[in-house]
């Protein structure tokens, strides 16, 4: 073999490397332009449980049948890893095109310019059947950063099989208090002899329990200017309550509670039938019923009638957002439109992501709902609510993890409920300030 | 051809061939070199610059002077993370090296099936910092895990080792000690270098086993011990995966597994404060450099070079 041949080979290798690099930077489309006829691949990311993954995959296949030149690549994760992964891909300029977004993060991503104003792609995105109020939940400063997918409400999900087994009567949820929940929880724990607990401890995975308590007393976490206005006394009561549940044995020992918390929906105490009551979204009833195989019942939140106002509200369960850096914003918007409006896709998704915010779709699927989905819709239709809180401000996206750490400190006796309350308020405020 | 002829020919044509070879070599090195510049050195330098800015990953960075470094002094959660990391390094590295040396001494005796044992003990080192092992660890030390099952056999009541802030860090220390394979291999090689005659002479003089270990093995092995110590300390400071996986990325419970690197990661990717994260990265470099310098300084008093 001569040297010339070898050198030729080297050049060939280099050239092909360069060529493949160039090929990777193909041309893109414009948000307001026509849909491309080229072969394109869009990446779509969401969090959720097994049930959601299956349904979403079916909808993707439907869309691909109608648009043979568009391939949708699904990337799905559990909630815990989802946001780390999204932040990393965003930073690397490698964000998925279509993003399932949450109320907790939409402010922080939108204000940093990471999300597309969907109005720019309005040509491909049909929002005619959405209520203006619902659309407003995904709008910040006049720009539409997210299309609300569904509505959900906080609820208590009770395991009727467990209550029956231990001879504990199902409580009347129209007027029960937080103390009632604790009393009943204690009964279940006692009757089971330590294998099943009354309550799945709140305050581990999200700040909902705290928010609900504040709202029931006519208070809120933030005011309109993103200042933390939560009274310290409410936070103190909240952690005292969680501590009392743990001390009396109504909830599992702290280390079990914390272990379950990081394991996701399918390993939760409700899904594994190891707790009789848990705080969940009403729309998670179907997934939890499938996972637990038990008869589960949606119940109203405790303390709704004792306070000044109902703590419950309609929360956009999630949003569809498009990355501001997507190369194919028009196609991404078309897919979002399909997710939100297509009747066939609606019949697959049903209420798994919340009772649809699209009113036409909501009526369309009403007749086809399974018993659990029907219960979720009925819950939404009948339970009294108050106005929703403001969108979580930029910088406060970490408030759930801050809450979890404070709960751990309280459960393991590293700080008192009083100290936790003061520290939590201070820390959340400093996070919001730091993001400015 | 005589050697002289060969030499002459090399002198004549060699330079040309060599330069052509060098050029080809350069082209083949180019991808690696590009990687070094763009993927390693570039970002390292950029992170130095970012340490003086406020940068939220998406909008352009804004210069804020030394604010990030000033924050290092007052950040209480960081100080807790430093405490956790120091504990981890100062406890796990000596234990790990002791295990490595102990097993190396056993294996050095020339057991039958030595190759098998050597591989078996080395295996955890290959797997130790992988996600799979960290996941396995959460199962083994979980409330219904292997450890509690075994304790249950003896009537001891277990606990959630990983979900209890009093024991969570210990499980990570055990994990690090368990990966003693790579220092062990290096110790084994070092032990083979020690001339047998020393031991024979000592045995004739009636030296006990302990005296032989203390007076011959340890001094002659001290350069290897030093090498392992420096390397494993640096390695331990940079531990990340185990804590990340075991705590679900939170460093919990109660920040008890909050390694420095995990805190740094959270600042960058959960709080979107890449400026502070970059400052923290450079501060970690200083800490590791200080530890290494102390190591080298102390080495003068205990490391013995035979030659």
Automatic annotation (TrEMBL), chain A:
Q: Per UniProt, what is one Pfam family of this protein? A: SBP_bac_8
Keywords assigned: Signal, Sugar transport, Transport
The superkingdom listed in its UniProt entry is Bacteria
Q: Which InterPro entries match?
A: Bact_solute-bd_prot1, SBP
Q: Where is the signal peptide?
A: 1-23
Q: List, alphabetically, the PANTHER family matched.
A: ABC TRANSPORTER SUBSTRATE-BINDING PROTEIN YESO-RELATED, ARABINOSE-BINDING PROTEIN-RELATED
Return the protein name.
Answer: Multiple sugar transport system substrate-binding protein
TrEMBL record, chain B:
Its record classes its membrane topology as: Multi-pass membrane protein
Q: One matching Pfam family, short form?
A: BPD_transp_1
Q: Which organism does this record belong to?
A: Lentzea fradiae
Transmembrane ranges, per UniProt, are 26-52, 86-107, 119-140, 168-191, 218-237, 243-265, 277-298
Q: Where in the cell is it found?
A: Cell membrane
Q: What is its main location?
A: membrane
Limits of the ABC transmembrane type-1 domain: 82-295
Keyword terms of this UniProt record: Cell membrane, Membrane, Sugar transport, Transmembrane, Transmembrane helix, Transport
Output one GO BP term: transmembrane transport
The record's family statement is: Belongs to the binding-protein-dependent transport system permease family.
Instruction: Please state what the protein is called.
Output: Multiple sugar transport system permease protein
Q: Name one GO cellular component term.
A: plasma membrane
Give the taxonomic lineage as stored in the record.
Answer: Bacteria, Bacillati, Actinomycetota, Actinomycetes, Pseudonocardiales
């Amino acid at each position: 073999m001569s040297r010339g041949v070898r050198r030729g080979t080297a050049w060939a290798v280099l050239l092909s490397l360069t060529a493949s690099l160039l090929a990777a930077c193909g041309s893109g489309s414009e948000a307001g332009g026509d849909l491309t006829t080229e072969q394109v691949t869009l990446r779509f990311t969401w969090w959720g449980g097994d049930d959601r993954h299956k349904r979403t995959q079916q909808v993707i296949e439907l869309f691909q049948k109608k648009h043979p030149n568009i391939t949708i690549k699904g990337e799905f994760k559990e909630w815990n890893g989802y946001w780390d992964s999204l932040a990393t891909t965003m930073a690397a300029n490698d964000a998925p095109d279509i993003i399932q977004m949450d109320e907790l993060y939409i402010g922080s991503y939108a204000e940093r310019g990471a999300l597309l104003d969907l109005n720019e792609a309005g040509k491909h995105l049909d929002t005619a059947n959405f209520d203006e109020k619902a659309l407003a939940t995904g709008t910040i400063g006049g720009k539409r950063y997210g299309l609300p997918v569904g509505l959900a409400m906080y609820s208590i999900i009770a395991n009727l099989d467990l209550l029956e087994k231990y001879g504990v009567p199902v409580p009347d949820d129209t007027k029960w208090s937080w103390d009632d929940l604790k009393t009943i929880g204690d009964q279940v724990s006692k009757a089971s002899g330590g294998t099943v607990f009354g309550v799945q401890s709140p305050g581990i995975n999200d700040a909902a329990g705290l928010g609900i308590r504040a709202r029931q007393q006519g208070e809120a976490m933030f005011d309109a200017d993103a200042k933390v206005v939560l009274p310290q006394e409410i936070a103190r009561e909240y952690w005292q309550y969680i501590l009392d549940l743990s001390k009396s044995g109504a909830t599992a020992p702290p280390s079990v509670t914390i272990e379950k918390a990081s394991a996701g929906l399918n390993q939760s105490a409700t899904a594994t039938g190891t707790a009789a009551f848990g705080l969940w979204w009403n729309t998670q009833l179907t997934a939890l019923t499938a996972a637990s195989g038990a008869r589960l019942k949606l119940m109203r939140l405790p303390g709704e009638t004792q306070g000044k106002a109902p703590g419950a509200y309609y929360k956009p369960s999630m949003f569809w957002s498009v990355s501001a850096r997507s190369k194919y914003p028009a196609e991404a918007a078309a897919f979002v439109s399909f997710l939100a409006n297509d009747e066939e896709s609606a019949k697959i998704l049903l209420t798994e992501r919340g009772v649809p915010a699209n009113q036409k779709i909501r009526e369309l699927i009403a007749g086809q709902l399974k018993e659990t989905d029907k219960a979720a819709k009925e819950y939404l239709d009948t339970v009294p609510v108050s106005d929703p809180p403001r969108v979580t401000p930029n910088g406060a996206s970490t408030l759930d993890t801050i809450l979890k750490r404070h709960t751990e400190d309280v459960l393991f006796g590293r700080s008192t409920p009083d100290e936790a309350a003061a520290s939590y308020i201070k820390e959340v405020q400093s996070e919001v300030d730091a993001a400015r | 051809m005589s050697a002289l002829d060969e030499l002459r020919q090399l002198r004549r044509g060699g330079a040309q061939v060599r330069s052509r070879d060098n050029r080809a070599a350069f082209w083949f090195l180019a991808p690696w070199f590009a990687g070094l510049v763009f993927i390693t050195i570039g970002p390292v330098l950029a992170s130095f610059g970012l340490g003086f800015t406020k940068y939220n990953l998406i909008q352009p960075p804004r210069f804020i002077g030394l604010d990030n470094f000033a924050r290092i002094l007052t950040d209480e959660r960081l100080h807790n993370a430093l405490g956790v990391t120091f504990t981890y390094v100062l406890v796990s590295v000596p234990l790990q090296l002791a295990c490595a040396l102990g097993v190396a001494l056993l294996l050095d005796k020339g057991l039958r099936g030595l190759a098998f044992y050597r591989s078996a003990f080395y295996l955890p080192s290959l797997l130790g910092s992988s996600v799979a092992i960290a996941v396995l660890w959460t199962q083994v030390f979980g409330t219904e895990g292997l450890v509690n099952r075994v304790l249950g056999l003896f009537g001891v009541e277990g606990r959630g080792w990983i979900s209890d802030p009093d024991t969570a860090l210990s499980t990570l220390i055990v994990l690090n000690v368990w990966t003693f394979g790579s220092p062990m291999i290096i110790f084994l090689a070092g032990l083979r270098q020690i001339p047998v005659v020393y031991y024979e002479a000592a045995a004739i003089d009636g030296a006990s086993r302990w005296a032989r270990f203390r007076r011959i093995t340890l001094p002659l092995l001290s350069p290897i011990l030093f090498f392992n110590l420096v390397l494993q300390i640096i390695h331990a400071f940079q531990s990340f995966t185990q804590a990340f996986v075991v705590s679900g990325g939170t460093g919990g419970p109660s920040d008890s597994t909050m390694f420095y690197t995990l805190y740094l990661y959270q600042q960058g990717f959960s709080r979107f404060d890449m400026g502070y994260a970059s400052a923290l990265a450079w501060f970690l470099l200083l800490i590791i450099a200080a530890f290494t310098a102390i190591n080298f300084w102390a080495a003068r008093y205990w490391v013995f070079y035979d030659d």
